[in-house]
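Blinded run. Sample ID left blank on purpose so nobody reads anything into the name before looking at the predicted structure. Input follows.
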Amino acid sequence: MRDPYTVLGVSRSASDKDIKSAYRKLAKQYHPDQNPDDPSAHAKFAEATGAYDLLNNPEKRGQFDRGEIDADGNPKFGGFGGGGFGGGRTGSRGNAGGGFSAEDILKEFMSGFGGQPRGGNPGGGTRNAGAAGAQWDPFTGGAANAGPGTSGKNEDLVITAAVSLEDAHNAASIPVRMPSGKVLNVKLPEKVEEGQQIRLKGQGTTDVYGQPGDALVTVKFAKSKTFRKDGTDIRTDVAVTLYEAVLGAKVRVPTLTGSVELNLPPGVDTAKALRLKGKGLYGDGDLYVNIRVVLPPGGDADLEALARFMRDQKPYTVRD
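Blinded prediction complete.
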């Protein structure tokens, strides 16, 4: 590597603040997410990170200034091996001097430059308790993660998957499309809850160290044209004819596991829902069927005559 002071564009007398500021600027300019198709930018980013890692460590910086180690952190004198001066290049994960590591600065970018990550706790978790999650990435305008369990690296990927009530009820496998276009088949856990996260190991983005993170699939129940969720209860509407409502009938009713036959009693009270016990979500709730009477299309002369007869001869009250 070149002289770390030259790489960062600072003088040998630069303060820790100056060094940090210089690295911050270069990291933002050359970050791989900002330059996905520019290998030279990737190389400059890696070089800047290596330079900052060395100069940010007071012990290593002193050894470099005294000529004891080179720009890559390797001892210049034989016989010391890796023990006399720590050996090898300083990684961004170590920071014996107690300053800000390169990793810390990258985390600052990911969390809005120094404050608590948006929508999360100081460790970078998401609003879903106990799971690493997405934070705003100022490099890309997209999502990045600095959640617990990732050593502060920004590689976990949070994806929201719309799940139908039927698939949730049956713990089905659903296709989930990744930002890369890859489609993964994800098995839903039993009795999955909305907002629950499913961790897919090694399916996240690759961080600056070349390590893949995880994909965190957040479950969101999709809006259904057939069912309405009410806790663990499910509600649905079933259309019936006038004569079915008056005379009674057997009608097919949709459930989360397929249609069933429902005995409609004569003169059914359409103001009250019919309950199918245990047919709700996960079997913990019930299915409530609202009956909706549909008149024949285009009108009917006989029905109109019957209606006039009932109005004039057999009226009844349905409203207070």
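Unblinding after everyone has recorded impressions. The chain has eight helices and 13 strands.
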